[in-house]
Amino acid sequence: MAKLTQEDLLAQFEEMTLIELSEFVKAFEDKFDVTAAAAAPVVVAGGAAGGAAEAVEEQDEFDVILTGAGDKKIQVIKVVRELTSLGLKEAKDLVDGAPKAVVEKVNKEAAAKAKEALEGAGASVEVK
User: Fold this and answer.
1) DSSP alpha helix (H) spans, the chain
2) What is the pLDDT of residues 46-86, one digit of tens each?
3) CA-only gyration radius of the chain, Å
């Protein structure tokens, strides 16, 4: 089989539909165990910096993670029960097993309220 040049390959790709090209890329990835990742955009200092900041999506789901119960473990367990639908034993197990997520995939306001309540009870908390 004769070796194809880049120009020959590009000419072949030009004749393909997008669906055919997509199937080719998937077959290529499978055959050579690689992934075709889009190139990262280059940010130029100056005027483009503002555009780059807009491109970053704002996070809309947060997890509140209990990292430590502190000295007031009983108060922390009570707050965990208020924030979740856990029973006493489950809430105690969650607090004892820290670091663990107390609430997951909540909006920013709910995460802030949960963090404030847990810190008020003496726990150390992290929001991700």
Assistant:
1) 6-15, 18-32, 48-55, 73-83, 88-96, 108-120
2) 554 455 455 456 777 888 888 888 888 889 899 889 888 88
3) 26
CA distances from 111 to 9, 35, 38, 79 (A): 53, 36, 33, 14
Query: Whole-model pTM?
Result: 0.52
Q: Omega before 99 cis (within 30°)? A: yes
With a CB cutoff of 8 Å and minimum separation 6, the contacts of 61 are 105, 106, 107
* Helix/strand/coil for 9: helix
